[in-house]
Batch of 4 targets.
Target 1
Amino acid sequence: MFTAVLTAVVVSAFWIWFYNFVPANPPAVARSGNVVTVKPEQAEPVTVAEQVVVGPSGLAIPVTGVKADQLTDTYDQARGAGRRHDAIDIMAAEGTPVIAAADGRVEKLFNSVRGGITIYIRSPDQKWQYYYAHLQRYAPGLHEGQDVKRGQVIALVGHTGDASAAGPHLHFAINTMGPGERWWQGTAINPYPLLAGKKASG
Ligand SMILES: [Zn+2]
């Protein structure tokens, strides 16, 4: 008699636990390296970086696995014929995931002689533009007009354009945008202090 009651209690407890703690539809999550691919129902697959390093400005360092103290301020470096770099180069192995530094909309996907495969992303308030260059390739399905979230994988690090194959890196720029300014316009500001939380050098 006692055994029967005990069995009933244990079986009931199991089913209560089962229905409360085992999800009916676990989300499909595939892990590879430090990247998690999440497939929401009835939506395009979105890949977000598992570890997003966010600077004091709220911007994510746009290459996975790179920490603030690994960044170098290359904003003021000369780039020949009176040109200034106006960007930060973030060194990383070819094929490292590039993530969106901030939320925004893909305004332009462009292939240029200098920048190679590039992405221009405009902030929701239209006042900022984030530029990613020398990419190896875009994330699958990335297209103009697409909304992206901070930390979302948008491309892979490469050396397209005038970057050296020996030194693959992400060339990352931030522009402030005036009313009506288009993707090729804007005024560059130094991303380094925003990402690294340190004063710009020089
Ligand atoms: Zn550069």
Target 2
Amino acid sequence: MAKLTRRGLLAGTAAAAIVPHVDPSAAATPAAGQQAPAIYRYRIGSYQLTALYDGIWYRPITDKFIRNAPFAEVEQALDAAFMPHDKLATPFTALVVNTGTKLVLIDTGTGGQISPSAGALRDNLIAAGINTHAVDQIVISHFHPDHINGVKDKDNNLIFPNAEIMVPAPEWAFWMDDANMNVAPADLKETFLNQRRIFSDIANNVTRYAPGQEVASGIETVPAPGHTPGHTVFAIHSGDQSLLVLGDTAQHPAVFARHPDWQAAFDVDGTQAVATRKRIFDRAAADRMLVTGYHFPFPACGHLIKTASGYEHVPVEWQPNM
Ligand SMILES: [Zn+2]
């Protein structure tokens, strides 16, 4: 069979006929220097949700990235998803829920402190018409830096000065325990130190919730341990509609939904992370629930279907009308 190449396409007479001869220097409108704001609004019942893109980090990975699969298999999965072999595409999408009485932010982005290609949350909030002072409540899924760094800016000032900060109690118990920090390997120690930078001086104003409890009207918390000990997902209910906020139950779906058994090096308890992922994904697939994943491609919202070997994420269609 002839190989279809770009050159082959352009050589075709039909294609050649429609390729216009345009001198780029003659363009009437100069090329834009930056990306458009990344905001996606949708509704769950009477609640208005706003997905806000913080950006993306190409996280360096090695052959130790997946603990329980040969790297050749991981490379195959990355190839299948058109991803490089030495970096994991790690996009970040935070979510604002307007319940009608409260403005709730779920996870806070990177605060511009993880990657030069992330940190746009604040600009996107402004573009969405949401004032940082108007956020009533911040609810945290877990204590990894890409979820909590946006509590403060680089100078340690609170970005959402009027928000009550709510964190999972088991997450606080694990990470804020100095005995756990002292026995941690060096790279994980940095994570512990970062958590102290964010939380130590505001500890008295941080509310610790027990996963399972409701943190705001219609926002139910669901224990999802493994990725971290207190990792929590959220089920948002309004009217007869629901949304499951998956947090880091799976990172990029092209890797971890398709390969739900894989234990990532960054999971605190890989076996438990896999069991949690399957329990939650099975529920989402069986109930055909709308889901959003913090590290899913923007707007990070869609459905999960069960396949022979795992799950596939089916993104939503962009809806022009609300
Ligand atoms: Zn994360």
Target 3
Amino acid sequence: MSNSADNSSQGHNNPRLTRADCEVAVIGAGPYGLSMAAHLQAKGVRVRVFGTPMEFWAEKMPEGMLLRSPRVASNISDPAGTLGLEAYENACNRPPSAPVPLRDFVEYGRWFCHGLSDCLDRRNVVRLGRENGEFSLALEDGKAMRVRRVIVAAGIGSFKRKPVVFKHLDSALASHCYEGRRVRDFMGKRVAVIGAGQSALESAALLHEAGAEVEVIAKIPQLRWIGMHPRLHQLGPISAFLYSQHDVGPAGISRLVAMPKLMRHVPIGIRDRIRTRAVRPAGSKWLPQRLSKVKVATGRVVLEARAVGHEVKLKLDDGSDRSVDHVLMGTGYSVDIRKYDFLSRELVDGIRVLDGYPILTSGFCSSVPGLHFVGATAARTFGPLLYFVAGTDFVSREVAAYVARQGSGTR
Ligand SMILES: Cc1cc2nc3c(=O)[nH]c(=O)nc-3n(C[C@H](O)[C@H](O)[C@H](O)COP(=O)(O)OP(=O)(O)OC[C@H]3O[C@@H](n4cnc5c(N)ncnc54)[C@H](O)[C@@H]3O)c2cc1C
């Protein structure tokens, strides 16, 4: 893997700043960053992707997890359509699995990288600024470079939502589902899992299976499950009319969500309602059975959490108490680009946002010329498909076509 992006001519303001050997820098090497690179390369654009490939999936998701998205919606898009999940399985002699195990998906993402080795750069970007109409990237090894166009594909890892009531607790006592703790470390421990979404419920199942004593505490009155109307999926052309293959959202909404180009023109109030409905907290249909022996308290909120020695004492809104060894927050995330700590203050201040999401136009351009955002940060503009891997196809095609039309400059 090449690490030599910093050569050629000197920058004029900063002696350490050199012009990158690329036209476009992509920050983040998850499904969106990798797919972006494949599409840009195919258009003849010199691109460099920063970060460790598939790091978030390999390091931060609960080990043993299964993908919630169906196989057909778990392909990282490439222009020729030859680097899908099935192609990976065939190439590596792996039997197809559904649901897709996390481990296989991580390996698939790494296999996808083979065709990109020239443009992968494992260094993290520690600071992105802008000077004289160009972007300056400071890298973790102290090197720096300039580039005209940047695509931020940095995922949701920075957006973890931690309820205030747990914020003061030490990380040994309370952690977020996306902090990559190993479930087997909780064997024999009492764990309160907070939340009712896929991450919370799947973590609860995994912890229970690893020998922890688990209780799920959820504020919704009843747990919900995805895909609990199988008959609606078995009506041939009617089902195809109601559901897209990505299967994000309920009947009807699923079809709309699959058209991000159209979603962008839906009035923001309705678009927000569709988004909230499509990704409301719910677990996959294969979870209820795995959770049948797990205690669940629904319609409950934790009012107080106190560390006492090695335990946490919880007080719930029905007056009941719990003593646990660990609180696991499956409380999702809230997009807020100010939490990307690599964005310089001046740059952030120049980006027009709506409730933390950048306001984007066609080509996924933000209000700063040459700066694009893809993945979850674009979901407010283009709808909830962009929270998922299934969105890589639309996004990469759109952005690559835009960049190819514009050239490396930022007109
Ligand atoms: C528990 C869980 C389960 C999920 N299950 C599914 C599922 O089944 N199907 C699905 O489609 N989606 C699922 N998702 C959503 C998933 O997060 C997105 O689909 C996917 O990660 C989007 O890809 P991405 O490239 O935008 O983000 P990521 O995969 O998060 O990739 C972004 C990468 O950028 C890197 N990065 C961040 N900052 C920098 C920096 N400064 N320099 C260099 N690199 C940087 C990060 O380390 C990360 O590796 C799940 C999410 C969670 C949390």
Target 4
Amino acid sequence: MKKDWKTKLIHTEAQVPEGFRSLSTPVFRGSTVLFPNAAAVNDEWNQHEVGYTYGLYGTPTALELAGRICELEKGAYTLLAPGGQAALSLINLSFLKTGDHVLVPESVYSPHRKLASQVLRRFGVEVSYYPPTTGAEIVTRMRGNTRLVWCESPGSITMEVQDVPAIAAAAHRAGAKIALDNTWAAGIYFDALAHGVDITMQALTKYVGGHSDLLLGSVTVRDRDAYDRLGETHQVLGCAVSPDDCSLALRGMKTMAVRLKAMESAALELARWLTRRPEISLVLHPALASCPGHEFWLRDFTGSSGVFSIVFQRQFTKEQVFAFVDGLELFKIGYSWGGVTSLAVAYDFQGNPGRPDYGHRIVRFNIGLEEVEDLKTDLERALGLMK
Ligand SMILES: Cc1ncc(COP(=O)(O)O)c(C=O)c1O
């Protein structure tokens, strides 16, 4: 057919040679997926089985990232979500319905708590919170309608390491599923599925992305029924991910081992150094005996990452804690973590009955890739400003 130049803008006859091979996964963008004929058109989400149908369910870039996360977490199926919080929502909305009960640790990431308290309750789900130091005794909190038990280990900010296998066993005896936010361990340092977890998720935003420039989440399972529920819910919620972000995450993955190793060693060195500072009453690093649940870290984890918290002595005012954080030069102030830049954020748990009595005296660090001696000098100087 003879084509006008305007038609050729859309339907080109230009050719490029085939056979290009490189070390990077191409960024496949696309909403529309082409079908070979009218009868082949379908809108099924499970593209691994039915072939590509729609960009919403992932282009090859997203499916490669999902496959690689699945391999690392030793799962059978992985779905991606547009952020860690979206992955948490996907799990809750897949496994809960009106009249069900969900158990959530008090140490949970605070937007996850909001999702449970504000959204799930609005839809008639019973939500209760349990102390993260609870192990097998969680059985006393189970109800006839408990369908999902959440763990986050270590917990956000207060860093309690949980007895996940004991909680998993109790949940399974009660016929409930157990889901874990495994972000701190990067899906690597805690083998969630081998410790009884049914559904493991991580914010790929943190260590997989690794450079503070993307938002993605993953959900990994072994069970086919769980995968179907997640996939069907993922489809109707429209949990599309950006192929560009997936490409960045694939690139981040290649250097994750060396980044994690460097961050682990720097964080441990700084955490140990901080235990010797008179201003500090407690260092909450899972690999240190001072961290609640340290024994479970020793038993179940194969390493530690770069996020930990400190609690100042009682005499320090909120203004002094702020002066410390503001006095840091290399540590920047900001949410999220897992990137190459060290960060510090002060939290205030005053009037929060679910959290330990740390009040306004807790600061969480993300340790990045700066020279550790420079970070120490920075901390030392800022501690000096608290006098
Ligand atoms: C433990 C934990 N889970 C989930 C999330 C949410 O991830 P995202 O920021 O990708 O939504 C965060 C973010 O800080 C987090 O710290």
